[in-house]
Specification:
single chain, Jelly Rolls, Phage tail protein beta-alpha-beta fold, 13-stranded mixed beta sheet, three-stranded mixed beta sheet, 18 strands
Length: 294
């Protein structure tokens, strides 16, 4: 029985470690216990001293302040981008406007312009409905936008006529690029050239018959070259703030010029006599134009 136990113990402990341990014999460790504990303490100490990542979070009040700041910046940017200055020049009046960069615009009668003053040095752009003469300071691209075309310049003087479907640009100095908005066709005008927008898109370009450094209307001089008489009367209405009615449709065309520094009756006489027309004043500022009796 004792032999069997001894045999089983040797199978379970083939190297006889139990006997060695029971005999009190010391095992030859590579490092002493003191060395092992010393190294372990140093590692623990290094880990304790290593910096831990700091995670900072914003408080509710800080998040609110940040959101308020972003909202304020967006509101300021939106205000600067979309705040608009509008100027309207009524019938019978000419008005001069100075733009933020020192460029000047003179508005003919019954003309509207609009622009963004706080966005001006990012985008020099003017919306126009009517007729205006521009004297542009040199700088970034300058654009005049109307419902049917756009005129672009760098620094020059030019006149834009945009009423209804009619769009005429006259370049006085420098050069301008005119583009119709429907077909994206463009022309570049040199001094003393004029472009007229065509119903099918694109422009016809011609020389100005009487070149000036500025259009005549800025000096109270109205000039017409083969202009339908009906349009001539409409211009007289704008310049004097009156209403002209006709008893029949006018097919004639008129060429000539006259000064606005005279009574409107004188001008009506100059326009009516060559075409066998007559006029009479109705109530208020209304005038009736009709064929002269034979």
């Amino acid at each position: 029985m004792k032999q069997e136990n001894r045999h089983r113990d040797k199978k379970d402990d083939p190297k006889g470690l139990s006997d060695l341990l029971s005999s009190g014999m010391k095992i030859p460790w590579e490092k002493s216990k003191a060395q092992v504990w010393d190294e372990l303490e140093r590692k623990i100490d290094v880990q304790d001293r290593s910096p831990e990542p700091v995670v900072r979070t914003l408080s509710g009040r800080q998040w609110f302040a940040l959101a308020a700041t972003v909202t304020l910046l967006l509101a300021v940017a939106g205000f600067m981008r979309f705040y608009t200055v509008k100027t309207f020049c009524p019938n019978g009046v000419h008005t001069a406007v100075e733009l933020p960069d020192g460029s000047e615009v003179e508005l003919n009668a019954y003309t509207r312009i609009a622009y963004h003053p706080y966005w001006w040095f990012i985008s020099r752009e003017v919306d126009l409905d009517g007729e205006a003469f521009f004297q542009v300071e040199k700088g970034e691209k300058f654009r005049v936008v109307s419902s049917n075309a756009t005129t672009e310049v760098l620094g020059t003087t030019f006149n834009v006529y945009s009423r209804g479907e009619d769009y005429i640009v006259t370049c006085h100095t420098g050069s301008v690029k005119v583009t119709d908005r429907a077909y994206k066709k463009s022309v570049i005008l040199s001094p003393e050239e004029k472009s007229v927008l065509q119903p099918t898109g694109g422009f016809t370009v011609s020389r100005v018959p009487d070149p000036r450094t500025e259009p005549g209307w800025t000096k109270n001089l109205i000039m017409f070259g083969s202009t339908p008489l009906q349009l001539v009367f409409e211009e007289v209405e704008r310049q004097f703030g009156i209403v002209i009615e006709t008893t029949e449709e006018l097919q004639e065309v008129y060429s000539g010029n006259f000064s606005l520094d005279q009574p409107v009756e004188n001008i009506l006489s100059l326009l009516c006599v060559p075409f066998d027309l007559d006029y009479e004043r109705q109530s208020g500022n209304k005038y009736l134009v009709y064929p002269s009796p034979e």
